[in-house]
């Protein structure tokens, strides 16, 4: 199964529409995320390591017809799909938006990626996203993980959502959660609402947590 990431999301959304009327509104796919800021030997942020756990419906869709009944799919089983996914994510900027010293950060191609099925049957995608130019965390480094169109809803894990690897003493990380939409506004998130937005409108940022990494 080597469909593009976007094709999989739309097909999974169509599948879920047969089970829940809520599928008539965004979002259609839910991801619970963890992240790790990786430092190099110079004390610069060199990469972000992502761990994304997909919802049960999407996980069931991408694993159907694969493996043996009763056995979890391994990284080896899902290696072709992992490769297809991370390559397709380039079109969406890897759903990762970072700034260093007020300037946008650019990322290189993902490394060390894998996809596997957990005991709870949720599929987990892991990949490392290197910065094209390592950034100093002493100049207000921040990043967000979200889909601008809100087709995919990203939510940071409640416990230990972001960690640091290789950071010098005194570095810290702070996760600023987004304010939830009022119920009246949430009820407006229909397909017609999103189709009426102007091209390039960044809706997802309204509901995205902001991660701030700071070092002395």
Annotate the secondary structure layout:
Elements: H1 5-17, E1 29-39, E2 44-54, H2 56-63, H3 79-88, E3 96-100, E4 103-104, E5 111-117, E6 123-136, E7 141-145, E8 152-156, E9 162-165, E10 172-176, H4 183-186, H5 191-195, E11 210-214
Parallel strand pairs: 1-8, 1-9
Antiparallel strand pairs: 1-2, 2-6, 3-4, 3-7, 5-6, 7-11, 10-11
Helix pairs in contact: 1-2
Could you explain the architecture of this structure?
With 216 residues, the protein is an alpha+beta fold. The protein has one domain. It has five helices and eleven strands, in the order αββααββββββββααβ. It is globular.
State the gist of this model.
With 216 residues, this protein is α+β, with helices and mostly antiparallel strands. It has helices at residues 5-17, 56-63, 79-88, 183-186, 191-195, and strands spanning 29-39, 44-54, 96-100, 103-104, 111-117, 123-136, 141-145, 152-156, 162-165, 172-176, 210-214.
- Can you give the helix content as a percent range? 10-25%
Measured distance between first and last alpha carbons:
47 Å
Shape: globular
| Structural class label | alpha+beta
Whole-number total of structural domains: 1
Uncertain spans:
10-24
Query: What is the makeup of the main sheet?
Result: 6 strands, mixed
Extended strand count = 11
Order of helices and strands: HEEHHEEEEEEEEHHE
Count of helical segments? 5
Mean pLDDT: 84
Strand content: 25-35%
User: What integer value in Å does the Rg equal?
Assistant: 18 Å
